[in-house]
Amino acid sequence: MIKTLRTELIYFFVVLLLLAVIQHSDLLSSPIARVDLMLEKQNYLHPLLWTIPVYAVVLIFRLILKYILFLKNRNIK
After folding, report:
1. Which domain holds residue 19?
2. Is residue 14 a contact partner of residue 55, using CB atoms and an 8 Å limit?
3. How many Cα atoms sit within 13 Å of 76 on the Cβ side?
4. By C-alpha distance, which of 59, 65, 63 is closest to 14?
């Protein structure tokens, strides 16, 4: 259970970081300025509003792929 939770948190943070870099290219050159801007505008939940739906889509895709592979491996035996 803990291992699964840790794996899902890693996936979530990878999606979060990828979306942050894709949406805000200046994050790589000046991350402090980007964080200061976020604090100034008080939009703390902004990253989560994008990450949660994208993570949900990735999770659904992973579950479908896992089920397909399960069916394929079950029929081979």
Report:
1. 2-76
2. no
3. 6
4. 59
